[in-house]
Recover the amino acids of this structure.
């Protein structure tokens, strides 16, 4: 496939367009406004003027003691937006809720969301949606980890249903074409895909998600030939072959360079180029078309380009199939709908 001039120029243009506001979220009003959402919705409508400050304070308190909260919130937001849209359906409890789907095993950050909701209900009862809390808390946490403080347009409302059957999140071993198709089905493009996969610059994954790359790639009985040998040997020590039922499933770092510091960095893209990506879907970016490879090269060469593109792509992801106006509701407890009589308030 030939090079698309749009992608040759888009990153410098994004850098120029966003350079005036990524350092300070309050200056970010120049971003294109997503349909139906508003900048500082709760202040504009005088329903909870300091909602964003309350959320940021709670995230700061939590982050001081648990830096894993940044990647946990990123995964939680992705798991919400990529199913039925950004409607906080992932937060609902229930024996058949989205939380119970195999793809969502190990999700975290629910306790922080609960704490934020309690604080907001005390100060602004029935005003701030769980969906907006999740989007704003994620922005604040990843900013504390080193990402830009990107703009979050607000005014979302919360969904009323959550079923594990609706969860169709893809395997982390899919090809780059399958990954792109998934992103495009949500209204996102190749730049969004390459950018948002960069969130794997921090966090952890289970050995079960990569064991195929280590021992039986595509049922060959051999490891993934694209994986760096040093990384392969390191991961094999941490992830032994899965030979029996009930075997433990250890956690490994998605980015061994940042590891337990959980810092947001551009090294993810350098590792893709040197075949040191841990997840198969990440390494598949090196097999992409010219547009994909150009974006990887530019992000690997310049952290600021990645940071600024992330601001735009996170804003776009946060606008997927949102509920506004009279749609949905503002939950009083993020774990249950307001009609649930068994729910604790």
């Amino acid at each position: 496939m030939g090079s698309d001039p749009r992608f040759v120029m888009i990153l410098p243009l994004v850098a120029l367009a966003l350079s005036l506001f990524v350092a300070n979220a309050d200056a970010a009003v120049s971003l294109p406004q997503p349909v139906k959402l508003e900048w500082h919705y709760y202040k504009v409508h005088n329903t909870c003027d300091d909602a964003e400050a309350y959320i940021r304070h709670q995230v700061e308190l939590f982050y001081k003691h648990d830096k894993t909260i940044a990647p946990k919130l990123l995964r939680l937001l992705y798991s919400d937006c990529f199913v039925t849209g950004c409607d906080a359906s992932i937060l609902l409890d229930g024996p058949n809720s989205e939380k119970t789907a195999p793809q969502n095993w190990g999700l975290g950050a629910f306790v922080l969301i609960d704490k934020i909701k309690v604080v907001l209900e005390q100060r602004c009862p029935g005003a701030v949606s769980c969906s907006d809390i999740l989007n704003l808390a994620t922005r604040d946490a990843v900013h504390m980890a080193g990402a830009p403080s990107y703009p979050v347009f607000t005014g979302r409302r919360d969904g009323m249903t959550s079923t594990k059957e609706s969860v169709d999140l893809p395997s982390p071993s899919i090809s780059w074409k399958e990954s792109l198709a998934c992103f495009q089905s949500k209204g996102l493009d190749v730049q969004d895909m390459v950018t948002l996969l960069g969130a794997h610059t921090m966090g952890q994954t289970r050995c079960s998600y990569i064991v195929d790359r280590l021992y039986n790639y595509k049922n060959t009985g051999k490891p993934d030939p694209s994986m760096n040998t040093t990384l392969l040997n390191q991961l094999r020590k941490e992830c032994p072959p899965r030979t029996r039922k009930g075997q433990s499933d250890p956690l490994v770092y998605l980015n061994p360079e940042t590891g337990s510091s959980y810092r947001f960095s551009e090294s993810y893209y350098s590792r893709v180029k040197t075949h040191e990506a841990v997840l198969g879907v990440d390494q598949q970016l090196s097999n992409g078309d010219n547009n994909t490879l150009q974006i990887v090269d530019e992000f690997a060469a310049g952290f600021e380009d990645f940071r600024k593109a992330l601001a735009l792509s996170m804003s776009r992801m946060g606008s997927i199939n949102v509920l506004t106006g009279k749609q949905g509701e503002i939950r009083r407890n993020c774990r249950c709908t307001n009609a649930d009589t068994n729910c604790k308030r």
About this structure: The two ends are 56 Å apart (CA to CA). Residues 1-34 have pLDDT under 50 and may be disordered. DSSP finds 14 helices and two strands in the chain. Strands lie at 204-206, 251-253.
